[in-house]
Fold this sequence. Notes:
By secondary structure, the chain is mainly α. The chain has helices at 2-11, 14-24, 32-43, 45-51, 70-79, 87-90, 92-97, 112-118, 123-133, 138-143, 192-196, 219-223, 234-246, and strands spanning 181-182, 229-230. Strands 1-2 form a two-stranded antiparallel ribbon. Helix 2 runs antiparallel to helix 3 and helix 5 packs parallel to helix 9 (123-133).
Amino acid sequence: MASVVSFLMQNACAGIRYRLRRELFGESPDSADMTALQEEVLAQPNVRRLLARRHPDGWIGRELHGGEGLDGSVDALLRAGVERTSPVLQGVVPAVLHPSVNPAYRPTFHGGEALDRSGLGGNRSVAAQVLAQLGAAVVTKLGKMTEIPAPVQVDGDADAPYYRPLGLDGEPKNFLKAKPQTDRSKCTGCGVCAALCPMGSISREDPAEVTGVCIKCHACIKACPAGAKYFDDEAFLSHVEMLKQNYQRRAEAEWFI
């Protein structure tokens, strides 16, 4: 291990050398040597290509998500050795929190709005991930904690048996194999459902075919522009109706951090 690290420290690119010293040896980014090495990192061709995507307000990339999007660009810069506290990356934070009006980039991504509406983590989830990578907000707060907080107490019975889904009749229901159906008379084959399925279980060639696991998230049903997707499994539908009947009251939010 020591010989490998020694070889990399002498022969690797500036980015690898910087990350070794920063992440393995815990060197401060404020030292003169590390500052000079960070300048070398920023001058690397791959880093300069990524920084060419930067907009005047600090946003990097064409849109929010993807290889040429903001999250992909930030991830690539971090892996290349750019310090997360550097001005170029910290400039991303206000751009995410307060996007410019009519920007030259897209502050969302294709399908992100549908995932947001479904509660599956679309644009908001990607933006939160970028902020977390850059040490913003909650991450910074946690980093400044000087003591371990007391254990969290959550209402409930810790010894209760594992929850089993119930139907309207109060009896347990098994619908693990339930999958969404497709009304072929309505389906246009647009492929939106296949693109949004978080499990990648819907065939792009034939959206009526569900070839993998279905987690009952309803993303395909909610996003289908033709209204062609639906569930017909009686056990699952009974469970859904039970949830609607008993759990539609508004519950107050609880914070545990």
